[in-house]
Write a structure and sequence with these properties.
The complex is a heterodimer of chains A (69) and B (447).
Chain A lengths: L1 H5 L2 H16 L8 H20 L3 H13 L1
Chain B lengths: L15 H14 L6 E13 L2 E9 L5 E9 L1 H15 L8 E11 L3 E9 L1 H21 L17 E6 L4 H11 L8 E6 L7 H14 L6 E5 L14 H8 L5 E4 L8 H5 L2 E2 L3 H117 L1 H6 L4 E4 L2 E2 L11 E5 L4 E5 L9
Parallel strand pairs in B: 3-5, 6-7, 6-8, 8-9, 9-10
Antiparallel strand pairs in B: 1-2, 1-4, 2-3, 4-5, 11-12, 11-13, 13-14
The chains are: A mainly alpha (69), B alpha/beta (447).
Chain lengths: 69, 447
């Protein structure tokens, strides 16, 4: 999960899209379905979090920067 | 007193007011100084008690001022000229603009010389601004930088935004309010880099703000340059080569929202994204965010559908195999049965053929054998015959017939006298009959 929090939105959504594509491949083994679905859910959470949950650290950095302007 | 004054008359001169009156008179009567159309650049424009004062200048191609005069639009005329110009060009006349003006030269004995502006031709300025803008665009195109900012990739959702605006400007407030209070819970991170957004300080302060952003470029996804639209907008400052060049070559995408639909500046040609107003800039950013959220929802639906479909497909496949295996087995059996049948049918024919072939071979062998036997018999018969003939010739009987006798002792033929001794009983065989005898004497001598 450490690696997940470091991911950018673009990285997460790219992995998600690739995973969905992999799952849609008729060759996709049903054995992988559970793992893939779990990872998809993780990536969806990361993406949504990036969009809607405040990154207070970044907010603070920018507030400081604006003050110095 | 002979009328000669003690004090000589001082040299005579007319009063200044008289001279000024004469100048005033001369100018006012000179019809070619009345209502003349003149092209000039306006600088140092200022409003005082409703009157608009300015300096009109002319520059040579290298930028040196080669003519200059004071001018004014009286308050009685200012309102109508202001709106006439603004309606036609989308902006008020301002410093640095080239104007085509109808002027009358006036002279006031107290306030001096001044051109009074009676009319203005906005089409001229419009053309001149367009030409200036076109020149800048041509230069940026020739330098190959005009599309650089437009070609930069956008981050999926630009959330970290550097804003160039005047602090406290209405447009900035609108932007911030719109962006941060979006209804979708999208988070944006903003940092204001303040700059003067009108007047002579626009270009240097906006360039300085760009430099400050560039120093922390990794913190931002894009730059937004905004100013409140509104009646006082003075867009001329943004038609500037240095500014356009800096925006075009800026390393992250720039969104420009500095005017209204009708006002197009050079910045609009070089920025990655052009919107009409600060509010529109915020809406555009929010749209990117909601698009991303919608995309995530679509992906989630797709995942669910895919999982369902994959399981259904697997089940279908199983069912297919379930029905296919007996059918396949039947088909294999059928195929083999047909093969077997055809073998069974072929077998007697093959056997018959084989037996016939062997039989005829046997027959041929029997034939050959008969021949061989016959030949052999014949040959043996002939041989026997010849032997018989020889035997007949050599038979002792024939010899006996010729007068010889055969002496035998104890069943054995005696061929030498030494085989006998006197007294031995012998049998003498003749051609016909035999006689027994006894040996009297033996003579071993050879004859």
């Amino acid at each position: 999960m450490e690696e997940n929090t470091q991911m950018t939105y673009t990285q997460a959504v790219t992995e998600l899209e690739q995973l969905v594509q992999k799952m849609q491949d008729p060759q996709c083994s049903i054995d992988h379905l559970t793992d893939y679905t779990k990872r998809c859910k993780q990536l969806l959470d990361i993406c949504r979090k990036k969009l809607t949950e405040a990154d207070t650290q970044l907010q603070q950095i920018l507030a400081d920067m604006q003050e110095k302007n | 007193m002979n009328g000669q004054s003690l004090f000589p008359d001082p040299p005579q001169g007319m009063t200044l007011s008289a001279l000024n009156a004469r100048i005033e008179n001369a100018i006012s009567r000179s019809s070619d100084l009345h209502n003349q159309w003149v092209i000039a650049e306006a600088v140092d424009m200022r409003l005082v008690k409703g009157h608009c004062y300015m300096e009109l200048i002319e520059k040579d191609p290298s930028g040196n001022t080669i003519a200059k005069i004071s001018a004014a639009i009286w308050a009685s005329n200012y309102g109508s000229l202001y709106y006439k110009f603004k309606n036609a060009t989308g902006q008020p006349f301002g410093n640095g603009m080239k104007l085509l003006l109808k002027v009358t030269a006036t002279y006031h004995r107290l306030f001096g010389f001044k051109l009074v502006i009676n009319d203005i031709n906005p089409e001229f300025t419009l053309g001149d601004l367009a030409r200036q803008r076109q020149e800048i665009i041509n230069r940026l195109t020739a330098e190959g930088i005009i599309d650089m900012n437009k070609q930069l990739p956008w981050t999926e959702v630009p959330q970290r935004i550097a804003i160039i605006s005047a602090a406290g400007a209405a447009g900035y407030g609108d932007f911030m309010n719109q962006l941060h209070s979006n209804a979708y819970g999208l988070k944006y991170y903003t940092c204001l880099f303040s700059a003067s957004m009108q007047g002579a300080q626009t270009v240097p302060t906006v360039l300085a703000a760009l430099d400050r952003i560039n120093a922390s470029i990794d913190l931002f996804d894009c730059v937004v340059i905004i100013r409140g639209g509104g009646a006082t907008s003075e867009l001329n400052s943004f038609d500037n080569y240095d500014l356009a060049s800096a925006v075009a070559q800026f390393p992250i995408p720039v969104i420009v929202g500095i005017g209204h639909e009708r006002d197009v500046t050079v910045l609009d040609f070089v920025a990655a994204m052009r919107v009409k107003t600060p509010t529109a800039a915020a809406e555009w950013l929010i749209q990117r965010g909601t698009d991303a959220l919608a995309h995530l929802n679509d992906l989630q639906d797709e995942i669910a559908t895919t999982v369902r479909e994959t399981i259904a497909r697997a089940r279908e496949q199983l069912a297919y195999y379930g029905t296919m295996i007996p059918a396949t087995a039947r088909s294999i059996l059928d195929t083999n049965r047909v093969k077997l049948d055809s073998c069974a049918r072929a077998l007697p024919v093959a056997a018959v053929n084989l037996i016939t072939a062997q039989r005829s071979r046997l027959e041929r062998a029997v034939e050959r054998m008969g021949d061989a036997v016959a030949n052999t018999l014949l040959r043996e018969k002939q041989r026997l015959q010849s032997l018989d003939e020889k035997a007949t010739l050599l038979s002792p009987l024939n010899t006996l017939r010729r007068g010889y006798s055969l002496v035998m002792k104890e069943g054995k033929c005696i061929t030498a006298a030494t085989q006998l001794k006197p007294g031995d009983p012998v049998t003498v065989q003749f051609a016909t009959g035999k006689a027994d005898a006894t040996i009297d004497n033996v003579n071993n001598q050879q004859q």
